[in-house]
Each structure stands twice: as structure tokens, then as C-alpha cells.
Amino acid sequence: MKYLVFVVVAIVCTHMGFSQGNTHKQAGGKFEGLSMTPPMGWNSWNTFATNIDEKMVKETADIMVSSGLTAAGYNYIVLDDGWMTKERDENGNLVPDPVKFPSGMEHLIEYVHAKGLKFGLYNCAGTQTCAGYPGTRGYEYQDARYYAKLGIDFLKYDWCNTEGITAKEAYNTMSNAIKKAGRPIVFSICEWGDNQPWEWAEPMGNLWRVSGDIYPCFDCEFKHPENWSSWGFMKIVEMRKDIRKYSGPDHWNDFDMMEVGNEMNDTEDKSHFTMWCMMASPLFTGNDYRKMTKETLAILTNKELIAINQDKLGVQGFKYSAEDGLEVWVKPISKGNWVVTFLNRSEVAKKINFNWQKHLIKDADFGFEADFGKVVYKLKDLWKNKEVGSTKKVFTSEIAPHDVVTLKLSL
Ligand code: GLA
User: Fold this and answer.
1) Which of 153, 162, 176, 373 could serve as a FRET partner for 8 with CA atoms 20 to 30 Å apart?
2) What domains are there in the chain, each with its CATH number?
């Protein structure tokens, strides 16, 4: 009888995941609640690629705080590819590059933390990162323990050199490894949308990239000689406008690090930033803060736009209409309010002539509705920071090529 009780208890425990040998599989689930609004910060890749170093990162952290970016909400400093040496050490540990980071990674992380900021690193699920540094495949638990010991707050986990493994399993393993290591770390999934992470990654990650890499242009496709493409920001928005029901608090569709302040003009940068806010995308700046113009800073710190991005409802916007290159994008936000962005996708100036009374906006995925025949909203132009009447009157405005007009509609 005693033996029978033991066997029954053992079977039940194994099923419930209490068995010792199985703890890795059972660790399960991301750290919840770390990104209830889209995370905001800076990532090194778009400007610096692998040319990163301690001095530049410290200067970036300094400027993030002194320029007002932190006050506006940006608080993650994330080092992308290129922070390691080309080989692990004799114990299989990752080694931060001592030439790029002469005072050590611990020192840099302390420096960033002392400024009240958070710190992130990058690696890949494959055998090597995209730039040829040691990947995590086969070292998941060891690397997660290392990140926890270093005290990082964010891990971007990429998808190069992953032949023969499946994305869902690989990301689940790393998510479990982070959980087991015990330090709450935002897990940023980056497999470029190739395996539809929005369908399976919510229990594992806090955000997932939805496309290949961004390119600093409005609507172009940049074809790399090695047979892959990078995408202008509107290409990414268009590509992933229909997976909005999968995005929300703590599980965001990530439209990639921004190119604001890089190669586009201020009008296009303003539209780029606006669309990232409309799509409730994570907001990672990808520019060199040390060379930032006041126009770029003003775009990145527009408080009203950031409030749209950070709205607690966490709903990704959608395209309401498009006619002759003039598009209307809408986003439901808290308290029954809405944001409407007119976007001139064309190369010529256009006139906006929007008679609210003729429109009924329905959000088929989340069930919100704006019935202008029944309800009157006040209008505020968020880029002009100006009240502009209400939905009782036809809204008219000029709109330059590639520009936006963004209105907040309040009850
Ligand atoms: C991939 C990612 C980029 C960047 C590079 C680094 O291309 O999509 O965001 O991390 O790798 O090598």
C-alpha cells in the first residue's frame, strides 16, 4: 500500500512538473508584466552596427537623460550585435570585447543603471549571431545565468544560423532559461516574422519583430546582394497592418528600431514616428544622439504622440481608407477617444477634406466604433499642438508629400 501511494504521488508530481529532472521544461512562461506599454529606448544597430564601444554608449546614456529623452519615456539602452569577442572562453562563457569595453560590461551596466536607465544585450538562437559572434544554441541556460548575473533588463534574441531548429521551440527554450535564471528580463523575439511569432510567442516574449530589417526610406525596398531585403517604414506598416489583434500589453508587434534622425528628411521622420505611435510599436531610437538635430529631438520627444503610443489600451491602429495616395489611419485609445492620422503616401501635395458626418469608423478586431452622426468629438492637431474644432465641421487642411496630419479625437 505504501508503495502504491508513493507511485501515485510520483506520477501526479511528474505530471504537475515537480520532478527535479524536468525543471527546465517546466520553468515555463516569460516574466509577465514587464512591458504593459510598448518599451522605449535606444538600440545601437541602425547607426553603429558592430562599431560600438564604452565611450559612445556612456555618451548615449548621458544624452538620453540630459536631452529630455528619458523624461519623455525612453529608458532602455540596448547593445545589439558585436558586443562580444569572436570566441567563448574555455568554460564556454560569452566574453564582452575587452577592446570595445575596456572597463568591463559590469562597469557599463552599473553606469547605465546609476543614471536610472535599463540595459539590454543581444544574441542569437543560432550557432552564431548575424555578424558572426558566438550564438546561444546549446548554451541557453548558461547564457541566461550570465545575463542575470550581469544584471541586464532586456534581451534581443535574433534568428541567424538556425538551420535545423524550429523557432517556437528555440524561443521557448530561451524564455524558460531566462525565467529559470531568475532575473526579470524583457524578452525581445527577433525572427523577422518568418514563423508568425504573433500566433505562438505571447507566453514566451514581451515583443516580437514582425518583419525583416528596416531601411531609412519612406516606402522603398532595399535589395541586398545576398538575396534579402530591408524595408522602408511604410512597407513594414503595410506588410503587418493586419495582425493587429495579436498585439497588446506585454506582447507587442515590434515594427523594428526607428530610423528617425538617420537618412530621411524631417517630414518623413515625423511620419515614421507617427506611424510607430499609431501601430503601438515599441519605440527604439536608432540614431546617434551625439549628432542629433533639435528637429529630430523634437520629433522623438513629442509628448502627445508618445502618449498615443503608450496609451493603456494598447491597441494597434489600422488603415481606415485610402484614396488617391491619401490614407486615413485610425487608433482607438482609452476613454472612448480616437486618433486619426492623414498620411500623404504620394509625391505631390494634397488637400484633406474630411466630412466626419459621412463616416462611421468600426474596429472589426476589438469592437470599438466611432459614430460621428451620434457623437461629437473635439479635435486637436497633435503636431501643431492646437485645438482645431470638432467633428461637427468638415476638416480641411493641406498636406505635403510624405507628411502626416494627426488629430486626437476626444469626447
Ligand atoms: C538582424 C536583426 C537586426 C540586427 C542585426 C545584427 O539583421 O534583424 O535588427 O540585430 O541582425 O546583426
Assistant:
1) 176
2) 40-309 (3.20.20.70), 318-410 (2.60.40.1180)
